[in-house]
Write a structure and sequence with these properties.
One of its GO terms (molecular function) is ATP binding. One of its GO terms (cellular component) is plasma membrane. With 255 residues, the protein is an alpha/beta fold. It is 38% helix and 23% strand. It has two domains: 166 residues, Rossmann fold (3-Layer(aba) Sandwich), CATH 3.40.50; 83 residues, P-loop containing nucleotide triphosphate hydrolases (Rossmann fold, 3-Layer(aba) Sandwich). The protein has ten helices and ten strands. The two termini are 39 Å apart. The C terminus is likely disordered.
Length: 255
């Protein structure tokens, strides 16, 4: 269970996230929506540790994450796609994913004791990396250097690295942004597959309401840094506060 309690951050006199308390259970996909500047990405940054909270806490399965670095939170089980944009641009796609797989696994590659077992272990890591690349439709680009990839393929590689880390919590911040109509379905299909694993928690910041309606089990709405709605998608989308704050429909027009 991922939980934030009274999570708050202030920039001078501006409160960007204001006392947000939420619990996210395994087996659910929660969409976080709201107008531009609502605090969605800032909330993500507080959870993953890119920003230090002014007040409040973040915990995962009872472990307090507040005060931990982003990398320590990753080791604890938080996985955020954008954290993985610091790729190795001169290595191949396969090498990048294999390194991510290697980082999560014990084996002879960590000890260097026996050449045969090291080779065997290396083979297993490569096979797992190959499997992930096939899942994200990048198998044909496995020997290409990361620097040569177009934007859409780089986004797919981010998701591949996230999958390789096998986190408890997947955090996607507009995962299809910048992708064309042919590329976006690959990422959405991956998220659908991840949803089938009921041990995983998925958080999704997304502006495309058709995607939210299809994928979300729950929607929370942020407005001016405050949690203003939380619940089942159809009810949240239909609520007056969301119609006005998020969809831009005036109360008079909705009446």
């Amino acid at each position: 269970m991922l939980e934030t309690k009274d999570l708050t951050i202030r920039f001078g006199g501006h409160v960007a996230v204001n006392g947000v308390s939420c619990a996210f259970a395994p087996g659910t996909l929660t969409a976080i929506v709201g107008p531009n500047g609502a605090g969605k990405t800032t909330y993500f940054n507080l959870i993953s540790g890119q920003l230090k909270a002014s007040a409040g806490t973040v915990s995962l399965d009872g472990q307090l994450l507040s005060g931990l670095s982003p990398s320590a939170r990753t080791h604890a089980g938080l996985g955020r796609a954008f954290q993985l944009t610091n790729l190795f641009p001169n290595l191949t796609v396969l090498e990048n994913v294999r390194l991510a797989v290697q980082a999560t696994r014990e084996g002879e590659h960590r000890r260097g004791l026996n050449l045969w077992s090291i080779w065997s272990d290396h083979k297993a890591l490569t096979e797992r990396a190959d499997q992930i690349l096939a899942d994200v439709a990048l198998k044909s680009r496995e020997h290409a250097t990361v620097a040569s990839l177009p934007h859409g393929d780089q986004r797919k590689l981010e998701v591949a690295l996230l999958m390789a880390l096998e986190p408890k919590v997947f955090m996607f911040d507009e995962p299809t942004a910048g992708m064309n109509a042919a590329e976006a379905p690959v990422i959405l299909d991956l998220i659908r597959k991840l949803k089938q694993d009921k041990s995983k928690t998925i958080l999704l910041v997304e502006h495309k309401m058709d995607v939210v309606r299809e994928l979300a089990d729950r929607i929370i709405v942020l407005h001016n840094g405050t949690l203003v709605a939380d619940g089942e998608p159809a009810k949240v989308i239909a609520s007056p506060v969301v119609q006005e704050a998020y969809l831009g429909i005036a109360k008079e027009a909705a009446a």
